[in-house]
């Protein structure tokens, strides 16, 4: 089961027009990477717990993808992280343990290893754990010598955290867990269920090393893109029917999508993704940025550390700095500068420079 019902509020305005799990990472939706890895691990059926823009998931994945059956459990209202699991009880069944994944994480975790460790301990629930620098952002576990979780604290004060082992948002659960979740209301599995299981000695942890990142914040989204470019793409990757002008440099690792045109003397710096069907003018400089499908960047523009939404038009000599988020189909007119931390809502036209962080509605 993949929890895919979040609103992505910290990624607005980009999440105003698409679910967070469909944000492109290295030019593929985040959820594609997760589904592909599950399929390679031998998973045959996935339940998607959806709410916000549920129809976007159905349109993209239908009832069968990556060789797996896809079933949708639609929430009429948000049910937290535990409520969707209870709601899908009949779909999941009570015959065997099952995986639950937070959909907004990117990881190369070995799911079969996690299941193996779960079965070894005869646990009711096993949480994948990874080491983090800032425990205050995550649910933190304190482990005993046999990997039983003695204490589970959600987002503790950094100085009072029992460890730096964070909940990685991937669980193996036994069907008896359904009995711990009340139906018909929002339930936080992290705050209401896991502490109870820890008190009963039924909660275990499995720590792993490897790729793991939560894309909840814009900086983390850009970081996830960089990690995949570094570890999977590794080169300057051009899609089909890309046209590249003279004296243009495309530095690795980067991705330029299909049917895209890059003008003369332009620089596409490392850790940049340009979506399909985009047009980038001459003498443009783009680095460490994500340009969604159908973006148009006019001559002499500069984009650094920003995310540019689908169908957006960037005018001539525009300068967009780190941390800027530009919503779908916005228009940034010629000679405008957007300094660090400016966000622009979808379909908005920006005619003047903005030099302090703010959201342009």
Structure description:
Helices cover 18% and strands 31% of the residues. With 361 residues, it is an alpha/beta fold. It folds into two domains: 2-218, Spore Coat Polysaccharide Biosynthesis Protein SpsA, Chain A; 235-360, UDP N-Acetylglucosamine Acyltransferase, domain 1 (3 Solenoid), CATH 2.160.10. The strands form six sheets. Strands 1, 4, 5, 6, 7, 9, 10, 11, 12 and 13 form a ten-stranded mixed β-sheet that branches. Strands 15-18-21-24-27-30-33-35 form an eight-stranded parallel β-sheet, with helices on one face. Strands 16-19-22-25-28-31-34 form a seven-stranded parallel β-sheet, with no helix packed on it. Strand 5 and strand 6 form a beta hairpin. 46% of the residues are buried.
Brief characterization of the structure:
Helices cover 18% and strands 31% of the residues. It is an alpha/beta fold.
CATH superfamily of the largest domain, by name, is: Spore Coat Polysaccharide Biosynthesis Protein SpsA, Chain A
Fraction of residues in H or I helices = 10-25%
Number of strands: 35
Determine the N-to-C terminus distance.
Answer: 36 Å
